[in-house]
Amino acid sequence: MKTVIVRYGELFLKSGPVSRNFENALIGSIRLCLEKRKYAIRRERGRIFIECRGADAVAKKIARLPGVTSTSPAIATSAETGEMIRAAVQLARGVLRHGKSFAVRARRHGKHPFTSMEINAKIGAAILKKIDGVRVNLASPEVEIHVEIRGDRAFVYTDIIPGTGGLPLGTQGRIVALMTGDMQDALAAYLMMKRGAVVIPLFVHSGTGNSNEALRKVRKQVKALRAIDP
Question: Quick one: average pLDDT of 168-190?
Answer without folding.
Answer: 93
